[in-house]
Design brief:
Elements lengths: L4 E4 L3 H12 L4 E4 L3 H10 L15 E4 L2 H5 L4 E4 L6 H8 L8 E4 L12 H9 L6 E5 L4 H5 L4 E7 L2 H10 L5 E6 L2 H23 L4 H22 L9 H12 L4 H10 L4 H7 L7 H14 L5 H11 L7 H6 L8
Length: about 325
Amino acid sequence: MTGKIAVMGAGSWGTAFAKVLADAGAPVVLWARRGAVAEAIAETAENRDYLPGVRLPAALSSTSDPRLALSGAETVVLAVPSQTLRHNLTAWRALLPPGVTLVSLAKGVELGTLKRMSEVVVDVARVPDDQVAVVSGPNLAKEIAQEQPTATVIACRDHDRAVALQRACTTGYFRPYTITDVIGCELGGACKNVIALSCGMADGLGFGANTLATLITRGLAETSRLGAALGADPLTFAGLAGLGDLVASCSSPLSRNRTFGARLGRGETMAQAQAAVGGQVAEGVKSCSSIRELAMRHGVEMPITEVVHRVCHDGFDPNEMAGALIGRKTKPER
């Protein structure tokens, strides 16, 4: 029997992953920042704010008290937005049980420090890096909550720890694989948000499948270049945490980043696009800046990321995006 698992964050993905863990047989406590959300989940077995219509299992309880959520937990899943992870984990650090496995669901690169999420966890929680795992893949929360078949990747330097988490979240509809390449897994997840923004912009501008395929393929190329510079395994980007996540996020209307980008492509403001995703976080809007800076620090060329940053933060017109990319100097594909 799997020991208690605390999932810290009751957004759509945190709630969906908590459901997976509970369906796999673990006792799960889902922490919600707002007391009203935790109370509604406890009373109705449904998170109506983020996953309306999805029945949550009896093995899943909820609370807004982090002390109650974390007490006695053997695994702690961090399901808060990437740019708030440091703040939240700092508040929870003293409550973490010794030796607990820390699992990051966030996909991003921290502004300022340019740290990946696992590096933020190590920094704040003061734990060795082999105590931290990350989960990434083509994991659109609504589809998983509806129990549509999907797979994911669990990355951890400690293979045995990854296998333990794999067993804890394997269900008839959710299939996890394990790898030890944490760097590649995290970069794939962070960069795909930025590429999904570009694909959304292209869709909003009325471009078709050729443009989408071009952005996905060249987006994967620039992600792989950054991964190579940081020591990732290049094969990771051909797998679920790379190409798999990229395709799902760039092609599905359920992707917040793609939806956000499409709104910008249609001429809406940043505020209007934010409203269109229900006030939830489109991680790529902030991560495009930190990823761009990380690439510059390592001398890696990432033209799509550069254009997305300019649109989101410098007032660049999305209508000029195609010209900025297509008009670049021609060169061999590799």
